[in-house]
Amino acid sequence: MGAKLKMVGLLTMGAVAGALTTIQFTAEARNSYGPLPLEEMQQLAAVFGMIKTDYVEPVDEKKLITDAISGMVAGLDPHSQYFDKKSYKEFREGTSGRFVGVGIEIGMEDGLVKIVSPIEGSPAFRAGLKSGDLITKIDDTAVKGLTMDEAIKRMRGEPNTKVVLTIFRKNENRSFPATITREEIHVQSVKAKMIEPGYGWIRITQFQDRTVDDFARKLDELFKQNPQMKGLVLDLRNDPGGLLESAVAVAATFLPANAVVVSTNGQIPESKATFRATPDDYLRRGGSDPLKKLPAALKSVPMVVLVNEGSASASEIVAGALQDQKRATLMGAQTFGKGSVQTVRPLSAETALKITTARYYTPSGRSIQAKGIVPDVWLDETAEGNVFAALRTREADLDKHLANGPEAKEDADREKAREEARQKLEEQLAKDKNSVKPLPEFGSTDDFQLTQALNQLQGKPVMVSKNMSERKADASTVH
């Protein structure tokens, strides 16, 4: 398998990890437990005792118990998880949009870490690192062979500690070391710009604590640039999800007051809820309403929502609400299909349990679990067709995923499509290693799908997917 195909695999892996980002809602831990299965508990205690006394070498008792808890939770579904001290800290960093590191958005290219963009004002930005730079070493460790997650962990650390990145700058054909002091980074999960006079683009990369404030500020800036907005593209491609309150607020920005955004239903009473386009449902931590001063035109401006296989959980809630309420045209590809809700219950100051407590439903009552949302207009990734789409993993591909009706034929069809796409890529790479190019950056002038979204808003012809016969089969499984 060629180096660039390996890159595709790594990017796919990163998208799957991102899709495990949870949707949260406030819930109190329940203190009432039913009777425990005595015989099985005795077996668990017996196994613990045997390992402690008979194993070939001494074992850490606390680690044994932690591993037992982790295994018990991991057996439920792909999204339930036991958080130990380290993973709980990482989870909270992910939802807060704050972490300690060097401050770069990254991808993978030919097995190396590629800097997509340095975060403005970050240590990497101040050190002069640029978009397109390749990181070949992190301290004394070669990047070749590391996964993206492994590379990220090596670049993160404690505040005021140093890390040496070896940079290869292709356009200057030179390598050089950059010594960077780590500090707390504040991630901007929202990007926006005017793509043409009267037409705005706003992208959400993840639904975090500060997403709604940033979203409202960016929208306000767009309308100040052009008060007579003719159309808006909301870009949710590769958005793995995040906090439920943020998703409800983003949908509420464009919906009539009190319109249904999403409902949830599960076994416990607090999992049965309906969330509407009202501050009472998205200001769950109190505070002022960041949407209050936004222009009234946002409720009626023509909209396109861009989605793809990497759009998951909270981004699917927004897309589903705007589609069901006939507020926007969805364009792109069928979404990831994460239709379950996770609640995080603290177990101590440093540990917690993230557990699936409900399914969620779009305003029309659709469960998109393991199905995803079908766009109104199917688009290929590029003008030439799809390159990596079939290789991307979706909810239905994850082991132990919650089912949503019969799936055997769908699973077989999806695996067949993935294998055919993999073979096609390998054949292309065998003929010409440069024949498969990475997809352009979202929001750039080369972004084919964004161009089609703009055409849709302007009433121009749209280049729809070249595989509509396959798409119709997919659509029939959702409705």
From TrEMBL:
<protein>
    <submittedName>
        <fullName>S41 family peptidase</fullName>
    </submittedName>
</protein>
<keyword id="KW-0732">Signal</keyword>
<feature type="region of interest" description="Disordered">
    <location>
        <begin position="399"/>
        <end position="447"/>
    </location>
</feature>
<keyword id="KW-0378">Hydrolase</keyword>
<keyword id="KW-0645">Protease</keyword>
<dbReference type="InterPro" id="IPR029045">
    <property type="entry name" value="ClpP/crotonase-like_dom_sf"/>
</dbReference>
<dbReference type="InterPro" id="IPR055210">
    <property type="entry name" value="CtpA/B_N"/>
</dbReference>
<dbReference type="InterPro" id="IPR001478">
    <property type="entry name" value="PDZ"/>
</dbReference>
<feature type="domain" description="PDZ">
    <location>
        <begin position="88"/>
        <end position="170"/>
    </location>
</feature>
<dbReference type="Pfam" id="PF17820">
    <property type="entry name" value="PDZ_6"/>
</dbReference>
<feature type="region of interest" description="Disordered">
    <location>
        <begin position="459"/>
        <end position="479"/>
    </location>
</feature>
<comment type="similarity">
    <text>Belongs to the peptidase S41A family.</text>
</comment>
<feature type="signal peptide">
    <location>
        <begin position="1"/>
        <end position="17"/>
    </location>
</feature>
<dbReference type="InterPro" id="IPR004447">
    <property type="entry name" value="Peptidase_S41A"/>
</dbReference>
<feature type="compositionally biased region" description="Basic and acidic residues">
    <location>
        <begin position="399"/>
        <end position="435"/>
    </location>
</feature>
<dbReference type="InterPro" id="IPR041489">
    <property type="entry name" value="PDZ_6"/>
</dbReference>
<dbReference type="InterPro" id="IPR036034">
    <property type="entry name" value="PDZ_sf"/>
</dbReference>
<dbReference type="InterPro" id="IPR005151">
    <property type="entry name" value="Tail-specific_protease"/>
</dbReference>
<feature type="compositionally biased region" description="Basic and acidic residues">
    <location>
        <begin position="468"/>
        <end position="479"/>
    </location>
</feature>
<keyword id="KW-0720">Serine protease</keyword>
<dbReference type="Pfam" id="PF22694">
    <property type="entry name" value="CtpB_N-like"/>
</dbReference>
<dbReference type="Pfam" id="PF03572">
    <property type="entry name" value="Peptidase_S41"/>
</dbReference>
